């Protein structure tokens, strides 16, 4: 059997893919199927015929259609109006086209010669993002596969500034990372990977909702410890609340501390005229992380690492590889990332922008923030519902009754009616709504509140 493509077969299979995906998205957006299914893995593997296909092969466009239908039907429908769980976008179709292009062309472009157009597109996207956060012509950036890698890369750059000898000599014992308890788990994980140890992540003073208390920041300063960075949330993963970036940035500047803004979710508010004030002071940061697979509606995963000074990003990694690093490397990005092989990530962001424009992307952000605020208005007007804060983004936390909130969430997921997440605020478990799907409307929100109020007493405490 030839290893070259059978182009006719590809065309047929691609048509099947487009047809099935179009039906899947349409059905999902109209809420005509359960928002998620969680068939046990053994049963699902049997239903999909996984091990038989692996052993024997022989799939054709016709049998592929049957497989793809079942595969999509058993997943989680991010385009569904009742998808309200995690900070993962229902991707816009231009980003999906970029995935299709990359799947065929596979221009892995950490080095320019492996994908000149892909690298150039990413460079243009990075310059656009740098402008949006206010870093200007002197800034640098790179796209990575996800916010966890992006945070790690930014902290490597911060460590290089504070302790440049750490790469070759090991991590000095006096290094610490300053971060609020609400910081994403990837920050603590990065401290472990960097060799600092999770115990050297110093918690910042916060208010009852987990926001950094700027007035109390001097409490964490210790002349015997050197902070590689101070992390602020824009916005916090759990609550969707923004830290006071300007106040924190001015504190960091006064004390010569690297200021890192984790804007993975909330930096996209820069595109909304009504919400960009939430990022006031972001231009004071030394580094910013901004995920596109959240509010810029690309498929997973695309995250930007942005630094105010380009040289800081270049200092993050120090390596030698004679088969890669030599001569004039132009736009090569390999020295700036963990990944040696990197997908055409910039194309996803670019095509979404090329189709929708900055205004269209900003309108999406504003619409999801507005829908979340509408949910808050509806919830606080009903008996039994409690919200600890007015939302600033598309994330709302709430409780219903005094019973087991996790059990309530589990019931909704088991019946496939709504997909929510949950978090803890001030030691209490809360339900958590993250409005991501454009199809989510007032009818969805009212139905969710009705369904919660109808749940069994064991779940609500009533």
TrEMBL record:
Its cofactor is pyridoxal 5'-phosphate. Coiled coil: none annotated. InterPro entries: Aromatic_deC (IPR010977), PyrdxlP-dep_de-COase (IPR002129), PyrdxlP-dep_Trfase (IPR015424), PyrdxlP-dep_Trfase_major (IPR015421). Keywords: Decarboxylase, Lyase, Pyridoxal phosphate. PANTHER family: CYSTEINE SULFINIC ACID DECARBOXYLASE, GLUTAMATE DECARBOXYLASE-RELATED. Belongs to the group II decarboxylase family. This is Diaminobutyrate decarboxylase. It comes from Pseudonocardia xinjiangensis.
